[in-house]
Amino acid sequence: MDVLEKNSITEEITGLIEQFGRDRSSLLPVLQGVQRKHQHISDFAQQEIARLLDIHPVEVYSVISFYSFLHSKPKGRNTIRLCKTIICDLLGKNEIEEALERELGIKFGETTNDKNITLEYANCLGMCDQGPALIVNERVYTKVTPQKVIEILNGIN
Amino acid sequence: MEDLETVKFQPVIFADYSPGEAIRKAVGISRQDVLFELKESKIKGRGGAGFPTATKWMLTAAAKADKKYVVCNADEGEPGTFKDRFLLLEHPELVFDGMVVGGITVGAQKGFVYLRAEYEYMLKSLEDYLQQMKKDNLLGENILQSKYNFDIEIRLGSGAYVCGEETALIESLEGHRGEARNRPPYPVNTGFMGFPTTVNNVETFAAVSHIITKGGEWFRNYGTDKSTGIKLFSVSGDCEKPGVYELPWGTTISEILDLAGASNTKAVQVGGASGYCYPKTQFDRKLAYEDAGTGGSIMIFNESRSMLKILKNFMEFFVEESCGQCTPCRIGNAKLLDGIEKLEKGEYTFKYINQLIDLGRSMQVASKCGLGQTSPNSFISILENFREEIFAKSSGGRNVN
Ligand SMILES: Cc1cc2nc3c(=O)[nH]c(=O)nc-3n(C[C@H](O)[C@H](O)[C@H](O)COP(=O)(O)O)c2cc1C
Ligand code: SF4
Ligand code: FES
To answer: What is the pTM of this model?
Structure first.
């Protein structure tokens, strides 16, 4: 990471802290803000957040590692999260899983070579009446079929 | 996402209501009057635990402190639950108005909505709605020219089921890992940042808005004596019409099955992964706090489904979602999952299975929070109620352990 990049991350974090307040209770919104832009929270970003909120970097890391939607390692620019809980499972999750893996040529837990898409599982998305369900970044798709998977993937640029 | 086609309208949560109505009422009467109506309604919390809302608000109101908080629990992580999604999308006015009434009643000036990360897609519309409330002076300073100030901030979760537990939720709001606290002290005394905090479910706030405008007695006319009012049920699985159903407490499992167009039903899981699984012989059970209690998740499984597969899915969920703080839950759930894998392979003895059921029972009492206290429920009820299927499938009783 060069100096310019570092400066811009520091600036970004400063902005987030101004928005949410210089307080420990702002930690999650700040982490979520950094991740929204960079898809992960790098070591440098963690140190800066710790410094600016006056907490230990280990604390920041410990919080990141607790939450399944926060990451300390780089991910794809887009994340697809497929519901693996029982109702979506009964409604055809396996077919969707196969279609996604086939079309992208990767397995769940992996990221495409061009760093565009990461495949992950999620637990119940609160869409069980319209499963199988998945989320692309924050957008939700319901009653997904293998054909619909192609459309969804085409919609991700 | 598609529109819901199947909501059953019972005129309670979906009764006529004009936005701001409950707030208009609350600023004109005393706190005691609000608490009186709540008490009259006998409403219990809609998040699952069923604590009387009037008592919770009275305790928070009575606590002496400089600051107090109101928190709307929109973490809705229990598998098979989606009624809060429906309320937030279709009736945000009921939820937010209920929170403002809560603020006025307990003496809080700030409210948080803890919205699960999976629902981030609704964040923008909810925030727009709050902006409009501010413009209409239903939120902010001197609400409707009264002496009351109250503001609402939406905070997102980050994908952790345990953060729906109220003390873990508060930890998360404070910027920590979502690890449940020891109780007591309870949030009504020592909540967010150590200040008195009332945490309620989305649906509880929505119901409060109606209770305040229509009276506690009106609400109490629905449901049973111990479980008053109407409940939203999230119905999913093997049925023709999955969706959100508004029904009085006391409705039986078979009545729901009929309404939802379910046939060939083998099992109904009431209360989500942390709830109980009922076999056919118990479909006459009533959905009510005093019988089959629930936060509203009703999952229907027909004859073609494997109970062991369903159970495994639930236990994998708990192993993943346990926060790992206490041993009964961290180790216990993993052991129960091990047991299911052994059952799948037919490598078990009945002695071993009975030991696992005992383990489940000790988790119910020894775990630190509701997650570990309830995660053995599905294990125990499925093994007890579907013995024949489970033990006929695996070769049974092979002496390997
Ligand atoms: C593991 C766990 C998860 C929970 N998740 C939720 C939830 O998503 N929403 C909710 O309202 N209550 C949830 N609860 C219950 C809360 O701890 C709390 O009882 C509830 O929010 C209180 O609101 P009520 O009195 O209006 O029901 C959960 C409890 C446990 C143990
Ligand atoms: S019961 Fe489970 S989730 Fe609750 S504190 Fe213990 S380990 Fe954490
Ligand atoms: S089980 Fe998939 S959304 Fe609930």
So the answer is: 0.96
